[in-house]
Design a protein that fits this description.
Layout: H1 13-18, E1 26-29, E2 33-37, E3 45-51, H2 66-82, E4 93-96, E5 112-116
Antiparallel strand pairs: 1-2, 2-3, 3-5, 4-5
The chain binds guanosine-5'-monophosphate (5GP) and zinc ion.
Amino acid sequence: MTASTPAHDPNCIFCKIIAKQIPSRTVYEDDELYAFHDIHPWAPVHFLLIPKLHIPSMAQLDASHTALLGRMMALVPKLALQEGCNPYPDGGFRLVCNTGAEGGQEVQHLHFHVMGGPRPWLRG
Ligand code: 5GP
Ligand code: ZN
């Protein structure tokens, strides 16, 4: 975290979800991370994994975030199976991290989309 990156942004919808000011359906929570079901799922399984630290996007990541991102990555397959994704290789999941306007990012708080389950999906 730097002076230009506050731990929480009072105007950020995902910071409000972490603070339980906006309700969400929890998938996982620990001191650093929170996961919850996407409100508009594209797939039978579709949840978002976010750091509790307000990082706007992947564009702000630096070496200080390596351990945090490693924890997020390592958690994805565990939570995917927990939430009903079928096992690899016939099942699996899609991991998406939209970054910036041209990357299709709408919420400016770093998040991984984890999507899976039987096809067809609504999108993606
Ligand atoms: P982005 O386009 O930024 O990658 O994705 C943002 C995602 O957040 C979208 O899939 C959208 O459905 C989801 N989302 C936006 N607002 C809320 C909310 O208030 N609650 C939940 N659970 N998901 C949200
Ligand atoms: Zn935030």
